[in-house]
Amino acid sequence: QARAGIISTVEVLKVMEAFVNEPNYTVWSDLSCNLGILATLLSHTDFYEEIQVFVRDVFSPIGERLGWDPKPGEGHLDALLRGLVLGKLGKAGHKATLEEARRRFKDHVEGKHILSADLRSPVYVTVLKHGDSSTLDTMLKLHKQADMQEEKNRIERVLGAISQPELIQKVLTFALSEEVRPQDTVSVIGGVAGGSKQGRKAAWKFVRDNWEELYNRYQGGFLISRLIKV
Predict the structure, then answer these.
(1) Per the database record, which ranges form the ERAP1-like C-terminal domain (predicted)?
(2) Which residue, of 135, 163, 181, 230, is most buried by count of CB atoms within 10 Å of its CB?
(3) Whole-angstrom Cα distance, residue 37 to residue 193?
């Protein structure tokens, strides 16, 4: 109804606040998706910082309850929920989540304590979102060293979280390099487009500037339509 302009988005936000004690992954996934769309729209207004505060307020109680480490008797959905919530809090700049993500990332890179598969994406996205050129370089090194394609893809999907314009360009250039399989290039560009307002503008310009190469690469297949969609 809010998307159709029938009710105010404020009403939706009030309803969302009522879900702070919700335990179900599917519900949180839906809330996260809708808040993501809203944050994208608000990134073009003065309300962007306020929606980040709202995200932190809504997601921090469930984040504190879940913590960082699996509890005995947890199911698969709990692990998914933890990854979703920590990633959301990290991206929104929740201080405690950011500090813990940085600590765990450092241990992971140094080989002291390897991150579990379900915590890697939220940690990567958090440190990149609030990171600098050395964070990006470390991530690209992890990509190069990764034995499994699954890990390479995981890193490719989150590289677009980086915020600085010159680093966004570096990620886009990387997308077309030989380091990335042609079928995975779209994921990298899509990650940039979804990462920030600056990323969207840069990705759109990059696609236009490199259109011939991209079009020849995908020859009107489903990947070219996916690229346009993102």
Answers:
(1) 2-229
(2) 135
(3) 13
DSSP letter string, the chain: -TTTTSS-HHHHHHHHHTTTT---HHHHHHHHHHHHHHHHHHTTSTTHHHHHHHHHHHHHHHHHHH-SS--TT--HHHHHHHHHHHHHHHHTT-HHHHHHHHHHHHHHHTTSSPPPHHHHHHHHHHHHHT--HHHHHHHHHHHHH--SHHHHHHHHHHGGG--SHHHHHHHHHHHTSTTS-GGGHHHHHHHHHHH-HHHHHHHHHHHHHTHHHHHHHHTTSHHHHHHHH-
Convert the pLDDT of each residue in 93-137 to its tens digit.
999 999 999 999 999 999 999 999 999 999 999 999 999 999 999
The whole model's pTM is what?
A: 0.93
Copy the structure tokens of residue 200. 């969207």
The whole-angstrom separation of Cα 186 and Cα 206 is 12
